[in-house]
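Hi W.,

Here's what went into the run:
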Amino acid sequence: MSILSGTADLPSRFRVHLPIIWILALAGAGAACIPLIYLIVRAAEADADTWSKVLTGGTLRLLLNTAALTLAVTAASAALALPIAYLTERTDLPLARLWRSITIMPLAIPSYVGAFAFVIALGPNGSLQDLLSPLGVESIPEIYGFVGAWLTLTLFTFPYLLLVVRAGLRDLDPAIEESARSLGQSAWGAFWRVTVPQLRIPIATGSLLVALYVISDFGAVSMMRFDTFTRAIYVRIGTSFDRSSIAVLCMILVVLVAVVLAVDWSQRRNARYHRLGSGAARMPRLIHLRRYRWPALTGMSIICALALLVPVAVLFHWLSVGLDNGESFPGIWSAALNSVYASALAGGATVAISIPIAIIVVRRPGFLSRVIDRASYVGYALPGVVVAFALIFFTLRVTPTIYQTIVTLVFAYVVLFLPQAISGLRASLVRVQPGLEEASRSLNRTPWQTFCSVTLPLIAPGILAGFALVFLTTMKELPATILLAPIEFDTLATSLWGHQEDVFFARAAASALLLLACAALPMIILFGHDRDIRT
Amino acid sequence: MTSAPDHDQLQPALSARGIAKSFAETRAVDDASFAVQRGEILALLGPSGCGKTTTLRLLAGFERPDHGAIDINGVTACSDQVWQPPEQRRIGMVAQDFALFPHLSVAENIAFGLGDGHRAWWTRPLRRLRRSPASPRVDEMLALVGLAGYADRFPHELSGGEAQRVALARALAPEPAAVLLDEPFSNLDQNLRSSLRQTMRRILKLANAAAVFVTHDREEALSLADRVAVMRDGRIEQIGAPDDLYYRPNSPFVGAFVGDANILSGRRTPGGAVTELGHVHFVHTPEPQDAEPLPGQEVELSILLRPEQLVLKQADDQLNSARVVSSEYYGHDQVVRVRLPSGVEVEARLRTEVVWRPDDPVNVIVLDDAIAFTR
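Here's what came out:
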């Protein structure tokens, strides 16, 4: 069955060498596990004294903060995503097609950029207060803290849920809803009693994405000065030399991630027999909004204004203020270049490592390939701060030559984003029937020639999509970049961070805008083909 | 038929010697041996799951047999000591879904196995620019399968029958020692099949290729192949020319698999057997004709009668005769199902001058010699 099988098909007596593809896949998946293994080893070394130092009221408060924020953001995201998905897919909302594109665009805005925009807009001495002070308004409610973090993270992460729920909605068989209607349910009743229950798995999947994002988020909570685990760990990496206690903190955060994953897993297990009808041949009938049309449009407009217009407008405002005041923008172009350079390296490396893994997972199912599959996801679930912490001390101890080099940084990106590349590749590999590879072998092509002339061209779209996705996420990545980037290697994300800490808001706004511009390109590659299914 | 030189006749293009393959606990192929000559078409016929596709994959080199050897043009491709991967075997393959490369044009698909200068897909624009002609072999193959002028089409622009012929041309282009076809007609429209069968046979004969194809459709096997191997549970039950299998099957299974069959029990008598339908003669038993039974000894036989060997006559006896159960009228013939007084049902294929109705009382008459198997 191709390269892809090598000699693994043979009875064991012939399997004299492990095919190179297995070695590559194992190495890639193993590398993704290095940070977690390092953490576990470190935390295990911690003595009772360290534990008692860590397990204090302060840590408990961090835990509660993180958990509360995660729950609140996930719930709010679901409350936004579900109606938006339904409105844009199933109703006669005017310009539905346009809304479909606009509502996922907040994904291109990293949550820390959004947080930064809100801070400079709504914070003390921010744009809003400047606007209101002539009216005699002396102070506006505090944006910092839980509310700010909750609002920002919700506005910039709900599109993850939206994408998944929308896809689930498209897969539903409209005949089921129609049956419910014919059995006497109103449109509203059918929505709650038939549609929503069928969307359970997409909602769970999307919620998982949002929850993991919130747990891992560092930039937005820091700018909103809300204390969560990631912020506490970051602060301690900078100030403390007690690695064991940081490792213990990281482990608690990892356990929190594990709890979220376990909850999601148990949801799926229960829903195992809950199959979604797929491949609806017919388009569903659109529901007429009638008098709800304007409220729906208003709601959508407000959300999109908050998640897109306001941040961008505020950034432009501060940029123009800076330009008017003759502000200089040192190093911004080299930061942009560095961002693109690091993201391209990360995209290329991640895709290269994901190819053998995807091939093994798709073509050679079995115990070992399941292990490889799961292992490649380990880094993805870890917060960037945690991976960065682990890699700093891992490289210092094991390979000091690559400490604070681009190699470590790219390695961190690979660990963090490997599954993003794998999932796209898997989908396109599944569509390449093994028969094609066999046909090539029977036409006298070697496994390697088969891979190059048949498999590779057929999975090229998946490779491109994986590259674009990793490029986009790397561009936006903040904590690992701050902690691992080589000295003097400023990216747009780190320069935005540095300038806002130093209160150079105009410079930070310039970096943020450039970052958005660079992130827009892969966004177009990824979602530009999201065609209207109704036409 | 082409008159091949003698040594070609002696040395088969492809032969399997006692190949066996198990998956987990299942014996997919069990000690199968056969040989195909150049210019000959062999069908592997059997019910689904009998191991015929596995046999094909063993020949092509996609699976390795647990035991046995495979020779291609007299060279051992695979045995306990030898292992040639698929690309070294010179065996063409036509997959069930044809497996045309979707990113390559028809001409590029056919040229794929020719290896002339590795016409990589990404050099296509350059070749277009230079208007480099397809290789003469590609044109020759396109003409052979009757698709001249299709060179620049893409697989998604072809009908099922066209895709099949492109797949065949692609497999034949590198002049393989043999081509293997996996259920070649299963993905095609029922109405097209019989005409495509004859096209396929003509192409294979023109190419003078050794061909092995797998099917579960007996009509397909009998009409397309020169010889048929009937498989059951991984074993080859019998190999022979189509008429051999039909008239001289060596087991009731083969007899019933290659054609409709009524199987009755009978008792050996001098010169024949006694069955419920009276005394029948038989021509063929695979068992040694150990002559007449000893006096007083009863030999039980299974008697196979084809439906077309039976005729029906109106019976006068309303009480003790066989009765028609059902009849299917096809125009050129009809198949009438009859329940004998013992409760056994038999089928008769009859001309249609007389139409039978359910419950008609009938006498069943055996026209000619039956086939007998010792039980």
